[in-house]
Fold these 3 entries.
Entry 1:
Amino acid sequence: MEIDIYDFDKTIVPFDSGSLFWGYCIVHYPWIALLLPVQFVWMVLALLGMINFTKFKKICFLFVALIPLQRAVKGFWDRHEKQVHKWFYDRKRYSVVISASPDFLLNEIQKRLGFDLLICTRHNKKTGAIVGSNCRSEEKVRRLYEALNKDDIKVMDVYSDSLKHDRPIFSLGENCYHIVKGKKIKFNFDEVYN
């Protein structure tokens, strides 16, 4: 089966969905600001290299325990779905979206956009904590092959905004597209990474 792989944040949409969702929730559920001091301390620890990004991300979404999550997610996508890049609607093959963003946030947009498979970071919907590993870099490839048999698929096109973090998924594609400000820029993998 021929498939296309898409990153989500700053690829299909022009923003980081997790960060924007946090901002949306601060506005609509201001009591979650009580968690800001804890989040700030953890952010500083991450910036100083004292904890890794996955550990930092484990506390980023603790606020979901304090909000009506399904209603918040629906309201968020009601506001931001129109920002999906138009070229994403022209999919012709089996489409796989692989993202580090939370499953509780992307499940709704998968239903709305109708892409075939969503692979993303799993979170406990009651506590917001990450379950397992953050879905980025090599983990994206591992999770793809967990979902689809490697021998049964041929990756045709790969789309991402991040040349730095998405080398592993770019390495799978026949064609690679760097997304810059919503525009698809085709490139040769060997020329960029060698």
Entry 2:
Amino acid sequence: MRIKTALAAVALALGFAAAAPAQAQQANYPSRPITLVVPAGAGGGTDVVARVLADELGKRLGQAVVVDNKTGASGMLGTQAVVRAAPDGYTLLVAYSTPVFYAHHIFAKVPYDIRKDFAFITQLASTSLVMMVNAKVPVKNMQEFMAWAQQNKGKINYGSYGQGSAGHLMSAYLSDSRKLEMTHVAYKSEAPHIQDLAGGVVSWGLGTIAAAQGVLKDHRIRPIAIYGPRRLAELPDVPTMAEQGFADPEFNTVAWFTLLAPAGTPKPILARLEKEAVEIIHSTPMKARFQVFGLESVPGGSAQFHKDFDAVDPVIQKLVKISGAKAE
């Protein structure tokens, strides 16, 4: 009996000894730089959100926060890299809608389970996508666009910032629901898509103000509609799809930018990151910085993140079904 008691005491002591370093690491978090993995290229909306967040988060945490762009496979490559990272709070994901909300509906094989493999920290921002045409396309609103598209059935290319992206899905929905017979051209990220749109390689597409600011200012592309519930402050003269007679609820779907960590990240670390990120995105200076890029702060926190996921999931499922946007 005494031997059993002694062994139990040794086991308990070893347990405390093993737990002590982990608890110390959590208490001292962060003690080294943090990496925000962005599964998209530089210059797009996700990259802008990540870099703005990195600046402010670094100041609050007292450590450098660096952005690492990992492109490929419609955002799934960078997302998978975070799944494989140690769940210690030093590798996080700042993602756009495609790899988080859309991928499991569109792709036959997704190398992660977004609910099981990640801890949701918070939504960061949302944006309404802007429908833009190359400046040489002879249309200024949706009525003119539809007439032009009908006259050129089977001849028009449209671009998106990735197979299965929000831009692809919503563009495909317009094309297929109105039987416009257009061809989709997928790019690896937003910046090359916008550049080819400005250059006339594709005739139209959806994108964010963050990625399109330069070519909007030099008038190489023309914004003709907002895919969202209201006009954007940066483009006050551009009406929404609904204002132009396209009242389908699918045209009101916004794109989200989110912050996630690998599953298994200690709860105290997740709580710290959630607190800091939510305070950052709702601060007056951050809201002002977001507005310049057509972004809006959204209700924050992990609980809200789960609610948003549950609410948008059936909408995306419907979009995929109607548009037929499936990929291997």
Entry 3:
Amino acid sequence: MEVYLDNSATTRVYPETAELMMKILTEDFGNPSSMHKCGVTAEHYVKQAQEQAAKSIHVLPEEILFTSGGTESNNQALIGSALAKRRIGKHIISTNIEHPSVGAALDFLEKEGYQITRLPVNEMGIVTPEQVVEAMQEDTILVSVMMVNNEIGSILPVKEIARAVHKKDPKVYVHTDAIQAYGKLPIHAGQLGVDLLSVSGHKLHGPKGVGFLYVKKGTLLRPIIYGGGQQKGMRSGTENVPAIAGFGLAIEKSQKDLEERNAKVAALKDMLVEGLTALPDVVSHSMGAPHIASISFIGVRAEVMLHSLEAEGIYVSAGSACSSNKKRESSVLSAIGLPADQRESTLRFSFSEENTEEEVRYVVETVGKLLPTLRHYTRG
């Protein structure tokens, strides 16, 4: 049996999405900037996807900016707004558990003379509105707080943070990296109160290499990619029509029966956590997100357990896929105060609607068989 439990890294594309993309690649392959029939057809696909994306978070289609994925969306939000507001101030607030695509963008801005405040989270991976407001200064221009942490699944109080920030200073922008929340939690951008929101396509059975950034109407933003002026000059470059259209279809499919699908996923996660933590010296750090389980197998290094599971057809990850190629401990697990023996033995199991109870039982049974042997060799 093969069991794929690394859905927070990427998901399998919906078959309908792949079919639509192939049709556009081979038949409706026009450039959406062209004025003839082929171009008009391509432009229609882009506009349709824009409407599908907008509907999913209850915003206007013109507030959707397509990007090459979550990393670009986060970079555009942070760097674009920082550049647009640099005459007003250069202070930005974030947290110490953000995704590398936020953290590295902030590092860049820091080198450019911006002041970055990285707030610590508690043992649940949460930063409070009070912490954010207390950190605000007269020259604060932006607050960026993720909605769901990609390693432990903590759900941060973005709505409350946005409300508190805007109450103190309505001119300060609030950005949220919603990449691990979108398609898992219902999102209403207006009720959330954010000015900028990032999404990636391949986390919800859409293609890789596409995402979008919600930019609230009236938000000042400088482009970070220049050229032919596509997307109203905000993101130059010929639109990736097959990926955008495929993304739109995946959005539409993922929004149907969202509560029911997420209830199923949450039940599978709970089943896994209950089964694994019943084993000796297995500890869960799984927080509120329905699809992410963070588990420590004390006495066995994460890489050893990962490859042992891989040999049994089970695919998981040791933290974020975007930083797993780096030989270093997870900054997220350090931030929530885990002891070293738990940090170095933690794996992430992440679910999608395609997973089953049979798969979970197989994982629990397999881990139960592997653990005594792996611990014996480690202690030996």
